[in-house]
Specification:
The chain is an all-alpha fold. The protein has six helices and no strands. The protein has one domain: Arc Repressor Mutant, subunit A (Orthogonal Bundle), CATH 1.10.10. The protein is elongated, with a radius of gyration of 15 Å.
Length: about 90
């Protein structure tokens, strides 16, 4: 919030990017997670998440996929051996 209060364009972008990343982390297992939901949660236009992640060299779907794959790898490396279907559902894949 301090970044938004500072009033600079870069600070706004950083704050919105942080809000978008946070929302992705909190809703990673939701199979319907997408730019529209992220934008609504961050209070920005539906196009803005694409711009924010493009500045990081990625896209919204790629960011979501990367985080889901990271989560799936963590689940698969746990001592318990879940089925592929359990991992897929638990990580937001359809």
């Amino acid at each position: 919030m301090a970044a938004i209060a500072a009033g600079t364009r870069a600070a706004h972008g950083a704050a919105h990017r942080a809000a978008a990343r946070s929302y992705i982390e909190e809703h990673l297992t939701d199979p319907d997670l997408g730019a529209a939901e992220i934008a609504a949660a961050a209070g920005i236009s539906e196009r803005q998440p694409s711009r924010l992640f493009a500045s990081d060299g990625t896209s919204v779907p790629r960011r979501i996929l990367a985080r889901r794959l990271h989560l799936a790898r963590s689940v698969l490396s746990a001592p318990r051996e879940p089925t592929v279907a359990e991992v897929a559902v638990g990580c937001g894949f359809t």
